[in-house]
Amino acid sequence: MIQKEVGITTVFVTHDQEEAMTLSDRIAVMKEGKIVQIGSPQEIYEKPVNTFVAGFIGHSNFLKGTVLEKSGDKAVFQLDSGGKLVVPVEPSDSRVQNGKPLILSIRPERIRLTQDDSANTGVKGTIKFITYVGSLSTYLVEVMGHELKVQQQNDADARAFRQGDEVCLHWSAENQTILTE
């Protein structure tokens, strides 16, 4: 507030991502002395340009693989570690093409857990660990050899999950970032 009241430009250098997000109207993320991305805190967090930025600002789950088949708003995604997932995609996204390697980046708070997948729209996994943090819980869910972090508000549904439960992970195409590096 002082900075805005005085109306001066301030350059603040920090490795504390939360501090950078709360104090800044523009952030420059640097790697090895070079600027990788410049933008508002929201742009940097929501639309990182690569895996370095996505992993540096907040936490992100990364799924690396190749698109086997795209059909409408879904794509069959072959993970580099083996296994196939059906994931949501934007039908108009030209980066999602058959045979093209991609990295899906999904923030933990953008994934929703359910115990029922009767609509067959989720990615199946097993809860390996749960950390209760008051208003939310953090789940580590194993999906085809990958450990994905999921954060969910603690409401009546969330309290129903237990370690070892088979669950379905759901996210929309808008809640993932498609990266090429």
TrEMBL record:
Species name: Paenibacillus cisolokensis
Organism lineage string: Bacteria, Bacillati, Bacillota, Bacilli, Bacillales
Top-level lineage group: Bacteria
Identification of the protein by name: Transport-associated OB type 2 domain-containing protein
Gene3D superfamilies in the cross-refs: 2.40.50.100, P-loop containing nucleotide triphosphate hydrolases
Keyword ATP-binding set for record: no
One Pfam family from the record: TOBE_2
PANTHER family xrefs: MALTODEXTRIN IMPORT ATP-BINDING PROTEIN MSMX, TREHALOSE IMPORT ATP-BINDING PROTEIN SUGC
SUPFAM superfamilies listed in its UniProt record: MOP-like, P-loop containing nucleoside triphosphate hydrolases
Sequence ranges assigned to domain Transport-associated OB type in this UniProt record: 104-175
